[in-house]
Amino acid sequence: MNPKSELLAIIDNLLAKKRFRHTRSSKLHLMFDRSELHFDEKDFSPEEELVRFRKELTVTALNKRIAWWKFKLSPFGLMIPSFAILLIMISVTLKNFQQPGNTGKGIIENLTGRVSVFRNDKQFNPDNGSSLSQGDIINTDEKSNIQFSVGNNSIIKIIEGSSVSISRIIDSSDGKVLNLSITRGGMLLIIKKLAINDSIEIKTPSSMATVRGTVFGINLNDKKETLFEVYDGKIQVKRTIPDEISIKDKMLKNKLDMYFSENAVIIEKNNAYRIPLDEKTLHSINIHNFNEHVKELKQPGIVVISDSNFLMKNEILDFIKTAQKKDESSRPYLSLVAKSFTASSTLEMPDPLFNDWKNRVRASFIEFIPELNLLINISEFGLIEATDLSKLKWSNKITGRLTTGPVIIGKKILLTNSEQMLYCIDAMTGRILWGRGIEGAPNGHIWLIKEGNTVYAATANGSLYKIGINGEMLWKSTLSNEISSPPLPGKDMVFVSIKNGIIIGLDKTNGIKIIKHKFNSPIISMTLSGNHIFAASLYGVLYCYNPQRDEVQWRFNIAVKSIYNIYTYDEHVYIFNTDGKITKLNTNGLLIWKIDLGNAISKKPVFDEKNLIIATDRTMFIIDKKNGGISWSVVIPNIVSKNITVNKNSVYFISDTKGITVLKK
Fold this sequence. Notes:
Layout (H helix, E strand, L loop, with lengths): L2 H15 L7 H9 L13 H10 L2 H11 L9 H19 L8 E7 L2 E5 L2 E3 L6 E2 L4 E4 L4 E6 L3 E5 L4 E10 L2 E10 L1 E6 L7 E6 L2 E14 L5 E14 L10 H13 L2 E4 L2 E5 L3 H6 L5 H4 L9 E3 L7 H14 L4 H7 L13 H10 L4 E5 L4 E5 L4 E5 L4 E6 L9 E3 L2 E5 L4 E6 L5 E6 L8 E6 L2 E6 L3 E6 L4 E6 L9 E2 L3 E6 L3 E6 L5 E6 L4 E7 L2 E6 L3 E6 L4 E7 L5 E7 L2 E6 L3 E6 L4 E6 L9 E2 L3 E5 L3 E6 L5 E6 L9 E2 L3 E6 L3 E6 L1
């Protein structure tokens, strides 16, 4: 906060309290100290001076006198210049503060137990619907709490055993300002995204938090530590000089302030930090030993708490549920906030709310996990959500952009992002279990193929990794050229195709290259059945390759160059073309059946015991695998997810008009 803002904040406090008789010069000393105005501390009564100088001084007079006043004032000259400045600052701002709607109010929405408010030296007990004003001090007793809103973007809950003051609250066309100070207990805050001119700051005995849009909690413990817990968004936190520690050396004070500002940190979601008071260090530090002692002050982020051990997690869940009932527009957002920090909790949403969320989902990939009865939705920008189609179970987010579809191994989800990272996520809770870098993917594209409790990761520049389910690197192999299709694990070897039509086989245990075979054209898709590799070339030829003999046993001319992908299932080969043609062969290359759907195949086909499920541009087909007959088809909305997924009885996808869409088989 700059000096002008601090002056305004203190003047606002005086105006709100409407009292001056008991003001001590020490308060104004602090105020003018930040503005390079100095005077000796001495008791005085400013009320009479305010009345007299209000009529005599103008803004022009103030501007002319400012330069002259910036020197050490004598005790005799203290009263008039000091109060001239105070009066003019008040006269400059009083008009704005008196404009209708400029002075903001906090509206109490939920109150439990005994809560007292001190206003203008008087105490009263508020009720639901009462308003809170600038200058109010709010105290909550044991088993008591209060929740209030400020405008349409801030909801605050003060928990039991707390003391919080509203230092500044302004709502004007120039912006909204909310400054709170907490000296005891804790509070929770839901702050929606602020406009550029809006400002929210929270002061504790040893720190200052600046907020732009987030959900977080603050708690002060018996050790005089400040605990920040961020559940969504992020906040900026810096240390401050505690009110109870007096540092009279102005140069030292400024140096500390600058040091704290330079070492401010950003606390992001799912992180919690403690900031100790460090009274001993602050008392012993001086301008001469500054560089030596300042390093002993613990900055925000030194003490980190695991997201699974949030101390205020129960309070935040109750707070979110209460806030949902009060604010219809924020319900979907608040529902998503209850993420992996509450692994054991399930956020119940009323049917209308859940349906509203479900209809707005726009996921890039969608996967059903039968063991958990969970549908996993993953957006291109890393938002991961799990639902059992009656409620939202959890939600989390990884950084960067999603580049390839997820891989499900048991109860774990593996996926990669544009920052060349591989993440493993607990499908039951949404918690990120581990993450590791995958080098060699400058565009972020990484193919993932699972086998048992391991995953193969292949990058475009020719790197192939084998990684265990716990994140351990089993081996890495660097090939001579770009990898052109996903890796293909066999019995003893894993196969990859690289540029110019070469297939390489590597030992699965150590990644050593064993075989290398050159085809006549680039390979765009491969599949495996028994001891044979079936490879589709760019020019419409399907090869049956025996790697043990290193020979091509037969070829099948597909006669088109629009091969989408090939798969093997029950010892048969299925060829899918982008134009809607599907061909089924046996492993000897004999044609079983061939159909033309007449629509472009836009998504990866899904197999079940009896059928093929195919999504084209506007139609869903169920095809009998045995004879290629169409069991049924239905016109569907445009699918925005890059795949479809199934369970025993249903087909799931994300549409552009209905969000999560379910079709019964």
